[in-house]
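hey can u run this one w/ zinc ion bound, need the structure tokens asap thx
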Amino acid sequence: MNVPHTVKPEAAIRGPVLTFTGDPFKQAPDEVMVYEPDGIVAFGGGKITHFGPAEVIEKQLPPDIEITNYGPDSLISAGFLDSHVHFPQTPMIGAFGEQLLDWLNTYTFPMERRYADKTFASAVAKMFLNECLKNGITTSCVYCTVYPQSVDALFEEADRLGMRIAGGKVMMDRNAPDYLLDTAQTSYEESKALIEKWHGHNRIMYAITPRFAPTSSPEQLAVAGALWDEYPDCYMQTHIAENLEEIEWVKSLFPERKGYLDVYDHYGLCRPRAVFGHGIHLTEDELCTMHQTGSAIAHCPTSNFFLGSGFFNARLAMQEERPVRVGIGTDLGAGTS
Ligand code: GUN
Ligand code: ZN
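ok here u go:
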């Protein structure tokens, strides 16, 4: 396949190449999958200028161009995107035995406390991003902790590596240990300062991050919506409908709302660039609202099985009449690798 090119190629890589020309959920995979056992991808000015069989492309490239050959045991593809991941949970992958709410209290919150220490946060951020790159992940939507320094730790290292990361400080003002709580006001001020410092800096993007409805007061959710109004090109990430007990809890905390998603919708948190983790147990009405508002689901299969949260029906969510945008996430700490 030849790609039209006007930009001069600066470098090229060679090896087996896998790419897709369409969505394999909508068309038969063999119609949209392109596999080139010995291909060359050339690039210049931040764009791909050439792609095709090595024997064809080689002749089209300037004679002095450097071609890095990765050999037959490699696979060249677009970078993977992790749409939902908690970097602070890197050291507790595989902590076993509980469903969501007990798992948070027993393992997750005590671990996140350690990120008050910037040195510790930086060391884990480094290890986490290195593991992402080793697994082909070049872009992620990342939860940090309630401590702003954990966000600095992640963004500093991501920026050094040239990775595209959307991330944010967790906003959490109730139903968690005292040491992890902020307030509606401090979460607004700290998130705003981080947006001003980082959003749009090279490849770094900010995601306003209320953890999930049970750990935010109505005031804090309102603040999250107001902050997003001020910075509408930021992302917003949170969790929804992961676990049946969690859903009942949300109903008891917000009895005046129609359901879980309506809590977020009420506070202006359902829009394009909203990334809702899990969404396993969303109702048909909620899937319609997700579609109408342009909100997206981050589906985390390994986490869902590990915590026994349930099966997410991706085809139902994406069905043609009211397709909801769905990405794949690792969730990381709640997974096994
Ligand atoms: N819901 C609220 N916080 C979390 C978390 O850290 N992990 C998962 N899997 N679900 C959550
Ligand atoms: Zn999560």
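The mean pLDDT is 95. anyway lmk if its weird
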